[in-house]
Structure formats: structure tokens, C-alpha cells
Amino acid sequence: MQAEELLKKYAEGERDFSGVDLTEVNLSRANLVGVNLSNATLSIANLSGANLSEANLTGAKLNVARMSGANLSKAKLNGAILNVANLVRANLSGAELMQAALIRSELVRAELSRANLCETNLSGADLREAKLRQVNFIGANLSESDMRGTNLAGANLEHATLSGTDLSRSELSGCDLSEAELRHANLSRVNLSGANLSGANLRWADLSGANLRWADFSEAKLSGSNLLGADLSNANLVNASFVHADLTQANLIRVEWVGADLSGATLTGIKLYGVSRYNLKTEGITCEWVDLSPYGDRTQIYRFSAEEAKKFFNQTPPTVRIIIDAPLDQNANYALAATYQQIANQIGMMQTPPSIKVGYRRTELSFKLDNDYQIFSSAYIAIIPFKNASSTQKNIITLMKMLQAQAINSHSMESIKQVKQLSSALSQTIHKVNELNLSPSSAVSEERVNFFDAPTQMLLTNSSDRSLQIYYDQNFGKRLINTAGSTRPAATGTTMKATKFSLPTVNVLVDFVSGFYYLES
């Protein structure tokens, strides 16, 4: 069929041209809205600038067709063959291209937002600067394609193949790349913030300088990948593999990476504030220094040898534990939360609430800290809501004085420096606590008072998993029987026959502090 005949019949109202042979036909700028060209042959046809919106091109053969600037919005191209077709600046928004073939096709600056390209073959295609927002690429083949500068925000690339694909400087925020194949892909300086890459294969991919904040890389494979200077802050890296990956000066502030495999990885200069360092595989890592400053500004640098690095990345989070000899009820829980909120607002510490374990007889509060040097200061603050606060705080001050005396007697400059850092932090905390102005909670009740008056004990655990008992109320574990025959914890100050708590010895204290990791510039 010739172009003139088709256009004439279309003008007369005919729309069904399925199966026709239009090889090399010239339909440039033709208006064919809603036309049915399913299973038609349009190879090497000229459709540049044509209006084919809502057209049915299912199963059509469009190899080497010229379709630059064509309007194919909401068109149906499922199973169509468009290999080496020219679709530069074409409008395919909302189009259906499921299982279509676009091998080595040209889609530079094309509009494909909200199009459905499920299981489509786009290997070797040129998609530079194309608009691909919210596109469905599930199971699509985009291997070796050029996607530089594309906008894929919110796109679904689950199970897609992008091996060797160049996505540099592209926008992929919030997109789904779970279980995607991205081996040797170029993702340098891309924006993948909030993206889902769980289970994705990124072996030997280039992610240098990429924005990966809040991205999900759980179970992802990043062996041999280049993450130089990448921003992974707040990302989920649980059980991810970074074997022989380069993470030099990457931002890992507040990442979650329990179970990650870092064997043979390069970690020099990584920003690591607020990150737990336990349950990691770190054999053969290279790391000369890390940045532990809250804002990654290198104000708190920690340097170490190869052996120290191995130990550093296999630590437990420093923890302050308070055990209360009474169960936590709803009123006491409300009052406790309100008190800690006031403390956090006024002092600027303890911003993260404790984890709480409630038993039938006791309650345990656990405060996990970012580093060891906060441990005494945090303990001093954590005990504030309880009647035992004054006694516990006195013990903390006494222990600090013991450390200071031991450091002076040791004549060790390193020891003096470390203790000075601890005592300075504690002094600043004491000053802030003295200026606290806590308003009473509206949840005051007899049960609440009983909870905060109950005997307590405090236990500190450092990053080397060494423990130190700070306080133990002599009435802890004792029960009083009231006139009704029920039991309650013996309140602090109650006279009962008990063994008085003794402070740890200097040797025990020094051994505990020797397990600290200090920040050195």
C-alpha cells in the first residue's frame, strides 16, 4: 500500500490497516491518531513528526524506521520490532511497549514517562537525556545501553538487566532496582536516593560520587564496585557484599550494615558517625583512617594500623544499662518518656530514646552510644529520673577522679590525654545538668512514684565488650510484704540487711577504659 492510498482511506474514516505492507513508506508528519497498524510492516518507513497517538502498532515491524519527533503517546506497541529505529525526541508517554524489541534504537531526549516497557529489549539503545519517570522496566533488557543524564525518578526496574549500561549523572531517586542486574554499569554521580536496590547485582559497577542516601542495598552484591566519595548516609546495607570494593572517603554516616561482607575492601577516609561496628566480615580490609565527626567534616579523625583497623570494625556499641527493680507500667512509661524528652531538648544529648525490656519484676533500659568517650557523660544523664540518681552520679564522679589520679601517677601523656577528654566531657555534662529545669509530669501517681523510687543498678559496656558496674542498690531484689499480703520492691533508702556495693578497683577501671577507642587527629 502506498502512502497516498492509506491517507485517503484514513481521511474517509477507515482505521483498520492491520497487516499491511508499508515498507519504506513516507508518512512524515501524517495525522494518524488511533490508527490500527497492528502486525503491519513499516521497516525503513519515514514517520518523522507523525501523530500516532493512541495508535495500535502491536506486533508491527518498524526496523530502521525514522520516527524522530513522532507522537506515540498512549500508543500500543506490544511485541513490536523497532530495532535500530530513530525515535529521537519522540513522545511515547503512557505508551505500551511490552516485550517489544528496540535493540540499538535511538531514543535521545525521548519522552517515555509512565510508559510500560515490561520485558522490552533495549540492549545497546541510546537513551541519553530521555525522560523515563515512573516507567515500568520490569524484566527489561537495557544492557550496554547509553542512558547518561536520563530521568528515571520513580521508575520500576525490578529484575531488569543493565549490565555495562551507562547511567552516569542520571536521576533515579525512589526507583525500584531490586534484584536488577547491574554488573559493570556506570552509575557515577547518579542520584539513587531512596532507591530500592535490595538483592541487586552491582559487581564491578562504578558508583563513584553517587547520591545513595537512604537507599536500600540489603543483600545486594557490590563486590569490586567503585564507591569512591559516594554518599551512603542512612542507607540499608544489611548483609550486602562489598568484597574488594573501593569505599575510599565514602559517607556512611548512620548506615545500617549488620552482616555486611567487607573482606578486602578499601575503607580509608570513610565517614562513620553513628554506625555500629559489629557482625561484620573484615578480613583483609585496607583502612588508614576514618572520619567519626557528626557532620563528616574531618574534625574527629581516627587513625590506626592494619591490626587496629581489624579490631575497630569488630566492636560492640558502647551501652549504658539501667536495671530497675520494678515493672514499667503505662503511667511510668509516659513520665519516663516525658522526662527524657525534656532532658534531650535542654541538654542536647540522649536524642535517641532507650530500648526498653519489661519483665514481671524488672525493667531494663539500654542506651546505645556512638562512641566510648560519651559513656560516663551519658550514664550521668540517663539516671536523672530515678531516686538513685544522686548516689549513682557521685560514683561516676568518684570513678573519674580515680582515673585522673591514676593517669597523673602513670606519667603517660597518652593516658593523661585520654582521661582529660573523658573528664572534660563529664564536666560539661555536669554543668548542663545543673542548669536543667524539669517540669513535673501530668502522669504522677502512686505507681509512677514507686517505679522511680525502686532500687536500680547501672552497668556500662564499652566497644570492646568489657563491662563496668557503676552502681548497685543494696535493696535490689528485696521484696516487702504489705498489709494486703502483696509484695512490692523495697524503696531506695529502706533499711534492710544487705551487702553494701563497693566501687570497682582502679585496676578494673583502667582495664575498662583501656578498651575504649579514642578519636585522634
Structural notes for this entry:
- With about 525 residues, the chain is α+β, with helices and mostly antiparallel strands.
- It is about 20% helix and about 10% strand.
- The protein contains eight helices and nine strands.
- The protein has helices at about 5-10, 305-310, 330-345, 375-380, 390-410, 415-435, 445-455, 505-515, and strands spanning about 290, 300-305, 320-325, 355-360, 365-370, 455-460, 465-470, 480, 485-490.
- A five-stranded antiparallel beta sheet has the order 4-5-3-6-7. The protein has a two-stranded antiparallel ribbon with strand order 1-2. It has a two-stranded antiparallel ribbon with strand order 8-9.
- The longest helix has 22 residues, at about 390-410.
- The protein is elongated, with a radius of gyration of 33 Å.
- The termini are far apart.
- Catalogue the unreliable spans: 442-447
Compute the CA-based radius of gyration: 33 Å
Instruction: Write down how many β-strands occur, each being a DSSP E stretch of 2 or more residues.
Output: 9
Average residue pLDDT: 91
Instruction: Report the sheet-strand fraction.
Output: 5-15%
Widest sheet, order of strands: 4-5-3-6-7
| Structural class assignment | alpha+beta
Number of contiguous helices = 8
Q: Main sheet, how many strands, which sense, barrel?
A: 5 strands, antiparallel
Helix-strand pattern: HEEHEHEEHHHHEEEEH
Portion in helices: 10-25%
Intertermini distance: 79 Å
